[in-house]
Amino acid sequence: MWATSIWRSGAGTPTGWERTGRSVDERLIRAATEAFAELAATQGEQVLVNQDLHADNVLAAAREPWLVIDPKPLAGEREFGVAGVVRGRELGHGRDAVLRRLDRVSAELDLDRERVRRWTIAHTVSWGFADKPIAGHVEVATWLLDAA
């Protein structure tokens, strides 16, 4: 399953966490592991999603009002596809800004807020560090975990 392969390839996995010296709170690794296992097994309708959709990848364009660049497409439920938007610090960084985006994206796109929250934690932890944690990603995942 695609979610499992994404998870296994990231440094935010339990193995990657060990390799990087347990550099983030273990709660984040547990929450991401559980989210990938539970959410992947219970997904809704599969649609084409861009797992790297965030404001820095949306440009003003001449032929259209905007253009999405650098797509990383895969099939998954809609709730997975908005993780980058919820996490994106280019739209404002801070606990309140992240939770406002979570609420707004979930409401305006008629998405299950809890699934969006959990997918965003899983995606953020998975993409959150390679050799060392990306501070903004760790903060976002922590804020979302604490917002349960």
Structural description of this entry:
The protein has 148 residues and is mainly alpha-helical. The protein has a single domain (2-146), classed as Alpha-Beta Complex (Aminoglycoside 3'-phosphotransferase, Chain: A, domain 2). It has helices spanning 2-9, 14-19, 26-41, 78-81, 83-87, 95-108, 113-127, 135-146, and strands at 47-50, 58-59, 67-68, 73-76. The strands form two sheets. A two-stranded antiparallel sheet has the order 1-4. Strands 2-3 form a two-stranded antiparallel sheet. The longest helix has 16 residues, at 26-41. The radius of gyration is 15 Å and the shape is globular. The model is unreliable at 1-9 (pLDDT under 50).
Describe the structure concisely for a colleague.
The protein has one domain: Aminoglycoside phosphotransferase (APH), C-terminal lobe (Aminoglycoside 3'-phosphotransferase, Chain: A, domain 2, Alpha-Beta Complex), CATH 3.90.1200.10.
Question: Which secondary structure elements does this structure contain, and how are they paired or packed?
Answer:
Layout: H1 2-9, H2 14-19, H3 26-41, E1 47-50, E2 58-59, E3 67-68, E4 73-76, H4 78-81, H5 83-87, H6 95-108, H7 113-127, H8 135-146
Antiparallel strand pairs: 1-4, 2-3
Helix pairs in contact: 1-3, 3-7, 7-8
**Helix proportion of residues, in percent?**
40-55%
Number of helices, counting only DSSP H or I runs of 4 residues or more: 8
Task: Compute the separation of the termini in Å.
Answer: 26 Å
Tell me the CATH topology.
Aminoglycoside 3'-phosphotransferase, Chain: A, domain 2
Element order, helices and strands? HHHEEEEHHHHH
Report the average pLDDT across residues. Answer: 84
Q: What is the domain tally?
A: 1
For the biggest sheet, the summary is: 2 strands, antiparallel
Content-based structural category = mainly alpha
Uncertain residue segments: 1-9
Strand order of the largest sheet: 1-4
Radius of gyration, in angstroms, nearest whole number: 15 Å
Strand tally: 4
Kindly report the name of the CATH homologous superfamily.
Aminoglycoside phosphotransferase (APH), C-terminal lobe
Strand content: 5-15%
Based on Cα principal axes, name the global outline: globular
